[in-house]
Write the structure tokens for this entry.
Amino acid sequence: MPAEPLSFSEGDQLRSWLSRTPPQIPPKWLYDQRGSELYEHITRLPEYYPTRTERGILTEHAAAIADLTQAKTVIELGAGSPEKSSILLRELGMRDSGHEFIPVDISTTYLEHIESSMAKTLPHVTVRPIQADFADRMPFTQGEPARLVLFLGGTLGNLDRLERAEFLARVCAAIEPGDFFLLGVDLIKSRDRLIAAYYDRSGVTEKFIRNIVNVARKRWGATVFDEHFDYHASWVDEESRVEMSLVANQPTVMTIPSLDTTLSFGVGDRVLVETSHKFTRESITQEVLGSSLSVARAFSDVKEDFLVMLFTKE
Ligand SMILES: C[S@@+](CC[C@H](N)C(=O)[O-])C[C@H]1O[C@@H](n2cnc3c(N)ncnc32)[C@H](O)[C@@H]1O
């Protein structure tokens, strides 16, 4: 039996993702305490260029972002660690702005860390953490402009095309004219560099992906055998995404009695545990413009590995 039963909507969503071909996992389930710790480790791996590249872009352009937005409140969706938001809050603080920070995350591990760390490093900032699923609804309501909503770390790339469109439409509906949306996405690059980032030599990404087996056992009450699966990461050109899968190395079955679900795997069948879509400047601009936000500025690194875009609502 799971430690805590799944809610009706969690069970419904999970059942529907698991019934896809191949079965897929909603990304939020990867961030239990161990998953959050492993992700933090991933961000410091030499092969994992996105975090340090995005942090470099933000450090270089924080003053411009602070000048343009003069944001009183910063809201971060899928906040993760406080590192990148702190760069912006510090710069806003120098302009007597950025007094309030609302980190939104599914992971209480991350939210607790943000609160304790910012109390020490940015004591003038009031931190109001919200534990919520950003796929359900935008967990922030009207507030005084200007608000700056952050969605960094390439997290948008974990959603598929339709989910991205729905997510961006919800952001657009939740913000007001005068507010800003800052989005960080990973750009398409050589297949070798992309794959290396998800096949690190120390095997931390594999541990992060395999941790879903523990989550399945503990949170969904699943019966599933870790040793019956191998980790595999591949670049799928037609989808512009890296796919991280657990591939059955022998015939096996995963059962989740609480969801009335049984999944049977032959050798080579897989569970698609995480996807990370990559973009071009043009492709992401088109997607966001579909949600009627307008581009205010775009910032990149010299190698054009990562892109940070600032949007406004007319
Ligand atoms: C790829 S990490 C990025 C973290 C951080 N923003 C960064 O730039 O390094 C994704 C983050 O989003 C959170 N997350 C994933 N799915 C979520 C969901 N549906 N609702 C809220 N938070 C979610 C995870 O807990 C994690 O902190």
The mean pLDDT is 96. DSSP finds nine helices and 13 strands in the chain.
